[in-house]
Amino acid sequence: MASDGNDTADTNVKQSWRSSVDSKGAFVRKESAFRNWITADGSSGFKSEANRYHLYVSLACPWAHRTLIVRSLKGLEDIISFTVVDWFLDKNGWAFTDQKPKCSLDTVNNCSYLKEIYAKSDPTYSGNITVPCLWDKKTQTVVNNESSEIIRMLNSEFQEFCKTPEQEALNLYPEDLRPEIDGLNSWIYPQINNGVYRCGFAKSQEAYDEAVTGLFDGLDKVEDILSSKRYLTGPNLTEADVRLFTTLIRFDTVYHTHFKTNKKRIVDYSNLWGYVRDIYQIPGVANTVDQEHIMKHYYVSHTTINPYSIVPVGPQLELHTQHNRDKL
Ligand SMILES: N[C@@H](CCC(=O)N[C@@H](CS)C(=O)NCC(=O)O)C(=O)O
């Protein structure tokens, strides 16, 4: 586990679920602070270049997970490097370690904690220290820490660097589908992606009831859409699917138990369960999913919810089984 007594780590980090609760006990997620854009032509001041940008991610985090999936689907593995933080989120925030599988020390900035990287970029920054965090090695700054924007940059601004023509042709936010994708994101984010957190971090029955009702209404709505469409907008995968997938893949192993989202599991919805397996089986996706990081992070880090940090034994998800969604 990340140590508490490090010299560089003397101030505690404000963790979002501890600090962001309104007067009715409802969890309110803070806006991301770093919102610069990388562009292919460099007009934004951040030009897309090979080996210039670095992602700091947690394999446990659904928001960071989005960026790893898009990086992989677009074939940008050799262009954008990344570091996986310790799955344990301690009072000093995300830490670097080489003592746990898939985690590594920070070889880009030589820091012990992610908060030092934010401080390097802006010494006055006092907001949340979150992953994903997209770092520019050239200007030594955080470019962006908002996953929904990072995935759009990876989707459109690194075209010349994609490994294969198919990866270059893949467009997760095509012009003609933008209104539909934006429409889906506008309710899937509050009801489902952030909805699970609103259930888990609720500090009143009222706040939980409201969040859990919205969550399962949202899941029912998605289940219905997926009864006639392979993906949310039709036959092709879009960013709306990537964004939904990272929540669904954590649902039965964590949210159902830890965040009390237990009206149903994803395996109980026939379309949603087939859809999760369909996306999981797309080449490049499965190796971004790590249930050990996912389970240990939530169950061990959130001691306000799970005081003894006991990680439950299951369930074991059969993600490789046939889904037949290609027949839709
Ligand atoms: N809006 C952000 C949210 C990122 C976020 O909240 N990440 C969580 C991990 S799942 C985090 O780093 N939390 C650290 C903390 O709250 O201290 C995004 O989508 O990129």
Automatic annotation (TrEMBL):
Catalytic residues at C61 (nucleophile), Y197 (proton donor/acceptor)
List residues binding glutathione: W94, E146, S147
Q: Where is this site: Lowers pKa of active site Cys?
A: Y255, Y298
Query: Would you name any one GO CC term?
Result: cytoplasm
* Stored InterPro entries: Glutathione-S-Trfase_C-like, Glutathione-S-Trfase_C_sf, Glutathione_S-Trfase, Glutathione_S-Trfase_N, GST_Omega-like_C, GST_Omega/GSH, Thioredoxin-like_sf
CDD domains according to UniProt: GST_C_Omega_like
Do you know which Pfam families this protein is assigned to? Answer: GST_C_2, GST_N_2
Q: Which domain of life is it from?
A: Eukaryota
| Molecular function via GO | glutathione transferase activity
Q: Which Gene3D superfamilies match?
A: 1.20.1050.10, Glutaredoxin
Annotated ranges, domain GST C-terminal:
174-298
Record-given protein name = GST C-terminal domain-containing protein
From what organism does this protein derive?
Lymnaea stagnalis (Great pond snail)
Q: What high-level taxonomic lineage is stated for the organism?
A: Eukaryota, Metazoa, Spiralia, Lophotrochozoa, Mollusca
